[in-house]
Amino acid sequence: MHKDVKEVLYTQEEIIEKCKELGQLISDDYAGKEVILVGLLKGSVPFLAELSKYIELDVTFDYMDVSSYEGVESRTITIKKDLDQDVKGKDILLVEDILDTGKTLTTVKAMLVERGASSVEIVTMLDKKEGRTYPIEAKYVGFEIPNAFVIGYGLDFNEKYRQLPYVGILKEECYM
Ligand code: 5GP
Ligand code: MG
Ligand code: MG
């Protein structure tokens, strides 16, 4: 285990098992349809890669990179990288590492609906329900977690720890 990790919450094996379950649900729910998996950079990449292996549908991958500003109760987010394709009439599955306040996904979802996507749903590896300030829920949730700062499996602190093959709680002394 990495020296900065206080506790491992989910091991690689548990995450893979969860991806299999979610992949099966998604395959059943979208049977006969084509889905665009939209990963939010950078944190969703390991989860998206694992989950997609168990989706038995025709899928394409696309990515968005957005940054939202803290502070003022504004929904403004900056698009640093937009999708490569037109989503009009398409079924979109937004893939996130973690859903916290819901600000990012609320804004991104509204943007894709505005562009004419025929459906926009969310799949998130982790859900911090207590953190929610926007009324948004993911259709597919890997694990519900308490309000702690987690790293690994894509999740970073100052861009570090994304490569850890598990989700763990970062030691307080690392960000104090
Ligand atoms: P939201 O817009 O839902 O508040 O923000 C979700 C984003 O906040 C995530 O994609 C992630 O980048 C960041 N985030 C929220 N909670 C955590 C956490 O516990 N650990 C890490 N590494 N990032 C988090
Ligand atoms: Mg993210
Ligand atoms: Mg981050």
Automatic annotation (TrEMBL):
Its cofactor is Mg(2+). It is an enzyme of class 2 (transferase). Keywords: Cytoplasm, Glycosyltransferase, Magnesium, Metal-binding, Nucleotide-binding, Purine salvage, Transferase. It is found in: Cytoplasm. It catalyses: GMP + diphosphate = guanine + 5-phospho-alpha-D-ribose 1-diphosphate; IMP + diphosphate = hypoxanthine + 5-phospho-alpha-D-ribose 1-diphosphate. Its EC number is 2.4.2.8. One of its GO terms (molecular function) is glycosyltransferase activity. Residues 9-157 form the Phosphoribosyltransferase domain. It comes from the Bacteria. Pathway: Purine metabolism; IMP biosynthesis via salvage pathway; IMP from hypoxanthine: step 1/1; Purine metabolism; GMP biosynthesis via salvage pathway; GMP from guanine: step 1/1. Purine salvage pathway enzyme that catalyzes the transfer of the ribosyl-5-phosphate group from 5-phospho-alpha-D-ribose 1-diphosphate (PRPP) to the N9 position of the 6-oxopurines hypoxanthine and guanine to form the corresponding ribonucleotides IMP (inosine 5'-monophosphate) and GMP (guanosine 5'-monophosphate), with the release of PPi. Belongs to the purine/pyrimidine phosphoribosyltransferase family. NCBIfam families: HGPRTase. This is Hypoxanthine phosphoribosyltransferase. It comes from Allocoprobacillus halotolerans.
